[in-house]
Amino acid sequence: MRKTGGYASIATFLMLFAALLSACGSSSTNTGSGGGGSTPTAPAVTVALVTDIGGLNDQGFNHLAYLGYTKAMNQYHFASHIIQTQSQNDYVHNLTLAAQSAQMVIAVGFLMQTPLYQVAQQFPNVKFAIVDGCAVPNPNTGACQNLPNVAPLFFKEQEAGCLVGAIAGQMEVDGKAKVPNLLGKNTISAVGGLSIPPVNRYIAGYKYCAQKVDPSINVLVNYSQDFSDTAKCKDVALSQINQHSADIIFQVAGGCGVGALDAAYQKNVYGIGVDADQSYVHPDVITSALKRVDVAVYDIIDDAEKGTYSTFVSNYNSNPASVAFDIAHDGVGYATPTSAVPADAAAKAMDFENQIKAGTLVPPTTIP
Description:
- Helices cover 44% and strands 14% of the residues.
- The protein is α/β, with parallel strands linked by helices.
- It contains eleven helices and eleven strands.
- The N and C termini lie far apart (93 Å).
- The strands form two sheets. The protein has a six-stranded mixed β-sheet, with helices on both faces. The chain has a five-stranded parallel β-sheet with strand order 2-1-3-4-5, sandwiched between helices.
- Helix 2 packs parallel to helix 9 (293-306) and helix 5 (157-174) packs antiparallel against helix 11.
- The protein has two domains: 47-153 and 294-323, Response regulator (Rossmann fold, 3-Layer(aba) Sandwich), CATH 3.40.50.2300; 157-291 and 331-358, Response regulator (Rossmann fold).
- It has helices at 2-26, 61-76, 91-101, 113-122, 157-174, 197-213, 230-244, 258-266, 293-306, 309-318, 343-358, and strands spanning 47-50, 82-83, 104-108, 127-131, 150-153, 187-192, 218-223, 248-252, 270-275, 285-291, 332-334.
- The protein is elongated and about 60 Å long.
């Protein structure tokens, strides 16, 4: 019995050794032929994500970037590497850490433009992408400098702002007969975080299209000077409601802006979300201006994995508008309005959307 057991042990060892050799020989590639048990193909690039100060739980901008990143990670099987920024003073440090450990770095936010330029210069072999920005050597001028290893991801936020502005404008025209929680002063508002281009593009479209629907409408615009402190945005919105009878509040302030939606809910008026569909925050959120950051982040990682990243960068450098994420390519839009929005207001947004796609309506990029 002992002798038989010895032969069995040797046989088992040989079988395991053969299996190990077989596994080693097949792990480097995945032909996609449908063979069972094949290991995933190694990613072409490893990718790190550096958030802005709002963090992954901002219920909008940064969270959407994370969703796009996660989708790409699950598809291409690179290890998760996420750095959440706590302070603007950490941008250079965080981007550098990311570049030291990954072959591609996604920077989330306009405020990282100059830090990104500095780090991208130091790591010419690392691919970078920045949401809402480009490589900017001098923050005082804000001028972009084209770099072969930086992919700017821009959106036409003014188009999304226009559509929710059209809804707000038509609701004011309809009045209390159709929209019972209006305060009767024909006044709507926007609460911005910081006065930066992507925020202002949203507000520009909102104000322009609301006034296109109703030229007599009052549109208040105030800033909290913050993207994360909900109390600051709530205070701004409460002032707009209490002092000026604003009854439709458009938040354009990331996580801070949830406070503006809180104020609208508290005062029984209407809120409009930003970036993601924020109807889950409160029942007063009648729609949201959508910016599909998740699509942009996924697409640029997909480009890097497929070897077409340099084509995107080249197209941007030759014609930036050609690669902007717009309404015609599902890069921006608006969330399905709730039942509080009258049918004619929802129809007005659809009409304006069709005009934008046809090129007959072009919302401005600066606040009128």
